[in-house]
Write a structure and sequence with these properties.
- This is Cyclic nucleotide-binding domain-containing protein.
- It is found in: Membrane.
- Pfam families: cNMP_binding, Ion_trans.
- The protein is of the alpha+beta class and 582 residues long.
- It is built from 25 helices and eleven strands.
- The strands form three sheets. A four-stranded antiparallel sheet has the order 4-11-6-9. A four-stranded antiparallel sheet has the order 5-10-7-8, with no helix packed on it. A three-stranded antiparallel sheet has the order 1-3-2, with no helix packed on it.
Length: 582
Amino acid sequence: MRTTSTVLFFDENYDFVRFYWDLCMLLLLVANLIILPVAISFFNDDLSTRWIAFNCLSDTIFLIDIVVNFRTGIMQQDNAEQVILDPKLIAKHYLRTWFFLDLISSIPLDYIFLIFNQDFSESFQILHAGRALRILRLAKLLSLVRLLRLSRLVRYVSQWEEVYFLNMASVFMRIFNLICMMLLIGHWSGCLQFLVPMLQGFPPNSWVAINELQEAYWLEQYSWALFKAMSHMLCIGYGRFPPQSLTDMWLTMLSMISGATCYALFLGHATNLIQSLDSSRRQYREKVKQVEEYMAYRKLPREMRQRITEYFEHRYQGKFFDEELILGELSEKLREDVINYNCRSLVASVPFFANADSNFVSDVVTKLRYEVFQPGDIIIKEGTIGSKMYFIQEGIVDIVMANGEVATSLSDGSYFGEICLLTNARRVASVRAETYCNLFSLSVDHFNAVLDQYPLMRRTMESVAAERLNKIGKNPNLVAHREDDTTSEGNTINAVVNALAAEAEHVSLSDDSVARLSERSLGLALQPLQAASCRMAGVALPGLGVAAAALPRPKSEHDFSSAQALSAAPAAFHKSDAGIAP
């Protein structure tokens, strides 16, 4: 075995052997905890060959397990993925925790006691019969020390839950462990109900003597003892007869206390486990109850209450999560991976994403917001200023014109609302939900932030938007408004400056003349641009006049190279089957 101070994982071969060793130990522990009380209480052949062989075999295996524990790595408390394999650290930890309890429960104290007190003389059974009986009874009590192996059972079950990932079903495992522990305590209590009168020699007022069970078969004795113990523990009676002696009274009280404790533990754990079994559904029911109380407080109409209830049912599907809080606690990379996985169906269904750069898709998806619309809801209203665009994950929407006519319909994988984000204009059509629609929205700020990083995708969306405008009878040049204005303005300013430079070279003018000429020329040149901008905004400005600042005389024309570069050719239009949208 490796003895390095710390490694990340167990050795695979050793871990495989340890798994079967733990399994055998678990089965042997269960057998001991069930068989030992029965054998001690209901059988008198403590020195029979089969009983000695069983005890010696069990004690030997448990002593070997102590040695194995000295060679078994322990997991660090602050990092469960690291296992300490240093023998000194393992021994120090084991000696400080469970070593002495395991050692006491593994030593055959009853046999050691009998060895030191045996007498081989023939007169032993005649002269010392009473003393021998007391020795045997004391040996029985010493054999009860083996029941301390219960601590090993608890530890092994906990280790299996941690190491072998049984905690994935921890709710059911905890309920199962609790029920098994209650049954085991009831089994022990039944054996104790018979053991104490047996050690006393079955006095006449004991429940065993009253029921005449001294010479009965051991299974009948155990059945009546278990019935008596369970009656006490469940507080439903005292068995066939109430306690007649002081010993029976104390045993009855002990059984009642243990039963009440187990019942309280079971009730508390069961309630806690049931509540934690589906916490998201419980939170959804609490949210719906709160909404119902709010609707009743505000006295909302019945139809509106029905729509709100149906909205919650469709939106949350019976489970409520604070997804923003959950994702906000993750690392940036992990949060991005989760969002990409959640939106994988959307990315697969949108043709625009299928042909786009993966980095662009990831940047867009991480900024999307999930929204739900009911049938008949107006998602976009014509004439309003757009602040979002939408991607359809599931559902059907209609594009409605001003005259109420449905121009077209969009379904899964389509997107709409990008035109006004590209043009800064008002919505050119309304969008109405035909069915329940699951949409993802992208705000204008996130839209511009992403497209500024990917200018090629901006030109692609502009071409698609121009095509859609053309289909619904709108001017497709609205999309190229920004680019055309920038190009025209740059050409105009360049022409004015060139004229000023040429005139200054041939005619000697004063600085005031140059300023007045610059003001007049620039004002005349910018007047068509502002008029065009006003027409695009739907505002008429009669008698437009511009007062521009005086321009200094340039030394060369190279200062306006950036303005000339704006006159580049616009991008080619891209065909799209996504449909028509405002």
